[in-house]
Amino acid sequence: MPGCTNCPSDAVTEKNAIDPRFRRILWVALIANAAMFFVEIIASQIGDSISLQADALDFFGDAANYAISLFVLGMALHIRARASLFKGATMAAFGLWVIGSAIYRAINGSAPEASVMGVVAVLALLVNVAVAVLLYRYRGGDSNMRSIWLCSRNDAIGNLAVLIAAAGVFATTSRWPDLVVAAVIASLNFSAAIQVIRLALAEMRAEPSKTA
Questions:
Q1: Cβ pair 3, 200 in contact under 8 A
Q2: What domains can be seen in the chain, in order of their start residue?
Q3: Per-residue pLDDT tens over the stretch 108-128
């Protein structure tokens, strides 16, 4: 692709975009993420955990991103790039929300329930690892596919971090491990958002006639 370093050719991208297997994987990922959003948002209230709440909202954001990705599959590259810009912006906004919530909880919060955090984090990790394995072969696609892979990868890393936080809360009876993990999840979202936005802008610049 002209003007894009280490990006796939349009032919490869279009082939992946219309791959029926990829479309089915996106549907599986969408359903799994939507289900885990409800599980974790309830568990975050029961366990009083900001990291679980952050992960729940991450599941919700990913489900929305998968839905957007399904909608734009097979469309022109500049349309997919614009969708990726939107997704990148929402990922960055999510990171800001988590940081704000962590600061508020640092001032007013209490120690969460480590047992609830641990059990739910294990379940979420299993779901995210399964989705990440399914999506791994598509990690080198356009900005739309890249954003999908980064969401899945970050989720699995985030779940491992929540497990560590649960162990920290259990060992110290402090809320700080929970807050630190929430900040880590926010940082991952910022990093992924920057990568997606940069690649999307490069794709839009590469097709000025189509984006005009």
A1: no
A2: 10-211 (1.20.1510)
A3: 766 778 888 889 989 999 998
